[in-house]
Amino acid sequence: MSNRKRRELKENSCIKRLAEVSIIAMVLSLTGCSGPLSTLEPSGPHAQGVAWLWWGMFWFATIVLIGMTWLWWRAMRRDGTNTAPEDLQKKQNSWVLWGGIALPTGAITLLLAFGIPIGHRMLPLDTDGVMTIEIEARQWYWQVYYPDLDITLIDEIHIPVDTPVNFQISSQDVIHSFWVPRLGGKVDAIPGRTNQLRLQASETGSFQGQCAEYCGVAHTYMDFIVHAHSAEDYAAWQEQATDEPRIIDNSREQSE
Ligand SMILES: [Cu+2]
After folding, report:
1. In angstroms, rounded to a whole number, what is the distance separating the alpha carbons of residues 144 and 157?
2. Distance from the alpha carbon of residue 109 to the mean position of ligand 1, in angstroms
3. What CA–CA distances, in Å, run from 208 to 20, 65, 157, 229?
């Protein structure tokens, strides 16, 4: 068997193995695309924007990866170059210009052109008549306060569906991060500072939230739940909650 034939056989077996590993990796990755903490299963307009941006980045990166792999494959199979020495510098410059400058500049411009408006929609720039909930993070729970109702809850938020809600987020100890993946982006809870986030649910149901910034030994358990109610159910919850004010349970803080 000639050396060339042997090399081709070896290459084909490598490609087959690579394809098998890629398929297994892809299937394993796809299992993480759904679930209570998946940004790819949006349930609100702001989360939908984040999901679209994610898919746009995913397909763009896939096209770039395929293109680069194809170029690499072509380069590896070439036995030599037919480029005249005087054209070599010109060719190298064009690779740097297109691959090193134009491609990353185009990618970043596209990302900012779509990403900045999506991020802006999650900022409560116009607060007139919009419901506000104050969130205070503590090691390791979330204190939820409704200023209009004078109700305090722990790790539990109730909102009406199809209604924008402004969250004012702060922390009493270390930096935490407030995140409800199916309703929108995440925002840091920073001591001595109040950050703003607007979220909206487009369907009723319960949505899981999680602290997304490592904040100490019990960080993993710093989760919470957002219940999105229909208008009637929300009014009923409001009435019940104001009739039976909750008592803040600090036992978790003391026991940790
Ligand atoms: Cu945390």
Report:
1. 7
2. 32
3. 35, 34, 10, 15
User: Residue 63 and residue 66: Cα distance in Å, rounded?
Assistant: 5
Render pLDDT for 118-139 as a digit per residue (tens, 0 to 9).
888 878 767 677 899 999 999 9
How many angstroms separate the alpha carbon of residue 195 from the centre of ligand 1? 16
CA–centroid distance, residue 210 to ligand 1 (Å)? 8
> How far apart, in Å, are the Cα atoms of 86 and each of 68, 91, 95, 185?
26, 10, 16, 53
205 Cα to the center of ligand 1, angstroms:
24
Q: In this structure, are 15 and 108 located in the same domain? A: yes
Please check the confidence at residue 255 and state whether its pLDDT lies above 50.
no
- Please give the model's pTM, rounded to 2 decimal places: 0.77
* 175 Cα to the center of ligand 1, angstroms: 8
Distance 55 CA to ligand 1 centre (A): 27
Q: What is the rounded distance in angstroms from the CA atom of residue 148 to the CA atom of residue 156?
A: 17
Q: 189 C-alpha vs ligand 1 centroid, how far in Å?
A: 10
Asked whether residue 71 falls in the same domain as residue 33, the answer is yes
Task: State mean pLDDT over 157-178.
Answer: 95
pLDDT digit string (tens) for 203-233?
999 999 999 999 999 999 999 999 999 999 9
Residue span of the structural domain in which 42 resides: 3-76+96-121
If you measure from the C-alpha of residue 140 to the centroid of ligand 1, how many angstroms do you get, rounded to a whole number? 7
